Amino acid sequence: QVQLVESGGGLVQTGGSLRLSCAASGRTGSLYVMGWFRQAPGKERDRVATISASGRTTSYADFVKGRFTISKDNAKNTVYLQMNSLKPEDTAVYYCAARTTIIGEYNYWGQGTQVTVSS
């Protein structure tokens, strides 16, 4: 089993920055990909960014490219999401997720952290 705990959410003004953290514990050696997702009220959950176990491969949704950066510290088993130039439409609950397979569903999820961007 793997446990994921997010932190770092909060309220920020448009154009501001936040850094989210996701600390993984348990059988972290089994993780293949970790990622950040978000869900706004009344909307579908969207993938925001993903990172491979090594940290060498990343991917981003088009709506965050150039503004958000995903990274990981393997020594701390922690994944980060640096969010810059935040917009009101970035307001959502952000979830950390992980999977133990190359492709397929994410099988571990954190509890989520709220990010609110005021205009």
H/E element string? EEEEEEEEEEE
Distance between the termini: 40 Å
Kindly report the oligomeric state of this protein.
Answer: single chain
Helix content: under 10%
Overall pLDDT level: 95
Structural class: mainly beta
Radius of gyration: 13 Å
Low-pLDDT windows of residues: none
Number of helices: 0
Strand portion = over 45%
What's the overall geometry? globular
Got a strand count? 11
Sheet bearing the most strands, described? 7 strands, mixed
Brief digest:
Helices cover 0% and strands 55% of the residues. It has 119 residues and is mostly beta strands.
Question: What is the topology?
Answer:
Elements: E1 2-7, E2 10-13, E3 18-26, E4 33-39, E5 45-52, E6 58-60, E7 68-73, E8 78-83, E9 92-99, E10 108-109, E11 113-118
Parallel strand pairs: 2-11
Antiparallel strand pairs: 1-3, 3-8, 4-5, 4-9, 5-6, 7-8, 9-10, 9-11
Commentary on this structure:
This protein has no helices and 11 strands. The chain is an all-beta fold. Strands 2, 4, 5, 6, 9, 10 and 11 form a 7-stranded mixed sheet that branches. It has a 4-stranded antiparallel sheet with strand order 1-3-8-7, with no helix packed on it. Helix content is 0%, strand content 55%.
